[in-house]
């Protein structure tokens, strides 16, 4: 058993806060061993955990000292067993209580676990009185790293939430993205916030870009609290009206929504990009597109093909894009990362990888969306709208748009392949045919003939080819 994390000192509120954080991440089959003397806060922790799992349906959670076991059900149908083994006379009684079976398919919280004998790979939470302050306690988390390594993050999350004044909040997991970041919604009465859980030390770019955007009246989420060393940010909750969701529910709004997206870019591009962002120039675009040649051809039975793609992109960028001042590119500017707020400005999410890049880059990102079809007439109208608003040379802009579209979409194909083969994230492969179709449209531009030649012989991601990637 390995010491995973420590929370010291912890008052009653912070102890309960840790219980609520843990309730958001544990799953059926997880067992928690709660150790500590009488009055250390074991039942207090368990009560916070169970009530957080139950949400609006929360019940009273009495101590199971006399009943030995109490069971609860959360809204998703998960059974939660709360046991107190202090009065257990023999470990064999575990089976009589049903705990052996429960530990296979329920979440089990056990106080005084040592009275029941060895448990199967539990997360052990020890609550011990603080040496100097009796009202405080020292909490340690221990367990096997292979199973419980994720728990090392939980005390830091609890500390941030406690410090920010959200001690009563429940945490609800939100859908993640292609990165390693996790998101949780915090609910506390009629207020809500979003917690970003990123790798330690990786939020500086997000914080800097948030400040830059908000200073210029773009609606990035306000940062409510932060622990940048741990990679934790508590953010304003902009709601659930992702542009992607609004487009799916109200397709007739598409022309208006895409007008607003283009106008946001026009406004954004009136500001010189900050000097702390990466310059996404020809050499860097070429370097990044090697993700395609490094992963996709070999995965589809064509190893070695595509070596000429990166040099072609670098040469074409010098020909088609040089001479145009770079603008700020949010890089993942698309319907999944924008919030529809009616007549209010669009909310902007996921911009920590912002770059200085040719003006066409984010327009491509929004209009050649890997996750959804954008009507050809809308794409054409938005290109024309952007050119008219900025006064850029129309033919030259369209050639650059095609080049950046091809580069971006080839890189996406490479990323999707790597995510499937290295990380087991296979759901992105379903987007490949749409991305490939966009590449073919981009390559049809006469200026991209050298890139089209470099693509010769590489198979398209047909159903059979995608099945091969999965194999």
UniProtKB/TrEMBL annotation:
A Pfam family annotated for this UniProt entry: APH
Predominant location: cytoplasm
Highest taxon of source: Bacteria
GO CC annotation: cytoplasm
Nucleotide-binding as UniProt keyword: yes
Any GO molecular function: ATP binding
Record's subcellular location: Cytoplasm
Keyword Cytoplasm part of the UniProt annotation: yes
Keywords from the named record: ATP-binding, Cytoplasm, Magnesium, Metal-binding, Nucleotide-binding, Transferase, tRNA processing
Ranges for domain Aminoglycoside phosphotransferase: 172-399
GO process terms (BP): tRNA threonylcarbamoyladenosine modification
Family: Belongs to the TsaE family.
PANTHER family: TRNA THREONYLCARBAMOYLADENOSINE BIOSYNTHESIS PROTEIN TSAE
Protein name (Swiss-Prot/TrEMBL): tRNA threonylcarbamoyladenosine biosynthesis protein TsaE
Organism, as annotated: Paracoccus limosus
Organism lineage: Bacteria, Pseudomonadati, Pseudomonadota, Alphaproteobacteria, Rhodobacterales
